[in-house]
Amino acid sequence: MGDDEFDYEDVTVYTLEDAAEEKMLQMQNECTFIWANKEGWPVGVIMSYVWADGCFWVTLSSQRARVPAMRRDNRCAVCITSKGTKAGPNQTVTYKGTCEILDDDETKSWFYPALAKALNPVNEQWQKNFAGFLDSPRRVIFKITPTQRIGYDGRKMGEATSKWVADHGNQ
User: Fold this and answer.
1) What CATH class does 18-103+139-154 carry?
2) Residue 37 in this model has a pLDDT that exceeds 80
């Protein structure tokens, strides 16, 4: 862009930097998980997650519609926002990925306590109780491995807008 141009249409120049993204992923504990139903329509729900080993980990009962949908087609998406965290305002990232359905004891033994800690980092008794509630017969864990990302840092756009207005006035 030239000095006199300001393009509100192209937000690709306001990408989220790796360090800011990692901070947001660690501080946030909710994502929007998106999949396609059997008719091919996109569907999304808010889920609690743990970010570990470069993957998103979520849990749900195997009777939820997401489970057979992921067995049919394991492609999915995850959206995260910094809203409600101290990571900084107006940050988002969306990932396309693949989902693996797990129900093994080894995964459950580290994931349930990790999720409980992510949801309530200060109350150890609550964490222990919640992890115990999660350990139910029909519960599965989704391991979502990102394959592509789209990051956006609205703070950068805000700074660029403020600079343009300071240099050019509110034309």
Assistant:
1) mainly beta
2) yes
